[in-house]
Amino acid sequence: MKKTLEFRAHDGEIEDIALGPDNKVVTAGRDFQCCVWQQDQLVTGLHWHENLPGIPDKAYRYQACRDSGTFLGLGTVTGSVAIHIAFSLQRLYYVKEAHGIVVTDVAFVPESRPGRELLGGHEAALLSVAVDSRCKLHLLPTRRSLPVWLLLLLCAGLIVATILLLQLAFPGFL
Questions:
Q1: pLDDT, tens digit, 9 for 90 and up, residues 66-95
Q2: Please, is 127 exposed, middle or buried when counting C-beta atoms within 10 Å of its C-beta (0-12, 13-18, 19+)?
Q3: 10 Å Cβ neighbour count for 27?
Q4: What is the distance, to the nearest Å, from the Cα of residue 8 to the centroid of all Cα atoms in its chain?
């Protein structure tokens, strides 16, 4: 093997590393940060005080990370488990102290036939393993969205309402 890139990702040890889509790399470090990298450039990062208000910055530490392409699964040293959208790091799912102690690894259920059966109607499933000798399955409910036809109908209604308001405000507008 030949080293192609070297850069400082964290202050201290790296707890876990995961390869994501588009040559992105996710790292969880002992410096209480989880970072998404493109080559040696920081794309975005998670910080406790920004993503979990009210929780002290040094109270938790990311321990394990996995990137499914769509979602980023995280485990902490306090047993908490979270799922974020991979490209924006918006938190979709969080269970404080899902395990009694350190989450040592997380993995998404693959989108194979048996995996889809396990998913049921859920958008994703994340397995977490911890020092408490337990493996837990976390199901991310399917996010609700508006049907396209309803969105188009709302846009058309907004355009008609705007024209009517302009006609009332400026007689002879049309």
A1: 888 788 899 988 888 999 888 778 888 999
A2: middle
A3: 19
A4: 23
H or E segment at 113? helix 113-119
Kind plus residue range of the DSSP H or E element containing 155: helix 148-169
pTM: 0.70
CB atoms inside a 10 Å sphere around CB 34: 29
Closest CA to 130 of 86, 64, 70: 64
Phi first, then psi: what are they for 46, rounded to 5°? -105, 135
| Residues constituting the chain | 174
What tokens appear for 45 in the block?
């990062």
Token readout for 21 is 């889509």
Distance from C-alpha of 58 to C-alpha of 39, rounded to nearest angstrom:
28
Distance, in Å, from the CA atom of 130 to the CA atom of 159, rounded to the nearest integer, reads 54
In this structure, are residues 94 and 69 in contact, taking their beta carbons and an 8 Å threshold?
no
**CA pair distance 1, 160, nearest whole angstrom:** 64
